[in-house]
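Sorry to interrupt, but I need a hand with the structure work. Could you add the entry underneath, on a fresh line?
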Amino acid sequence: MIGEITNKYIRKEIIWIGGSNIIIRKLVSAVMACVLIMLSFFLTAQKDLAIIIGIYLFPILLIYGVPVSILSDFVTNKLISFHRVIFALIIHLFLATLFVVTPALFSGSEIFNFYFIISLFSSFLFYCIDEFLRSKLTIYLRQKIFLSKRAKDLCEKIGDLRI
């Protein structure tokens, strides 16, 4: 009984990164990209700028970046691995550019400004993190962690707890 529960838990955790819960993987990618961008600005620029960028960037990544990334996965689903990677990167960068260039064209402001660079950088980071979470290396590492004896013992101890 406990072994079956442990195996179901381990299988669920292995599949989590692989593709069944795409939205969760995209949300994790968005959070990690936002934190890394904030950290990079925190280390290189003023601390206030990093907080302001994080406040504005996180909702944009959630509202715009996650659906764009899901669309990119849907469009590139049938392509061969190398072509899928390149085409997905192009989609991410193009739609990030479109997000900044379209308002800049209508307002008459400079197109290649600070926001343009931030959008490309955040889109590229989002893409790289998502591809890493999707990779076989991550799945292998999660299998090693959750299939280890220590993890099994921990799951059995949790399963033995009674309320």
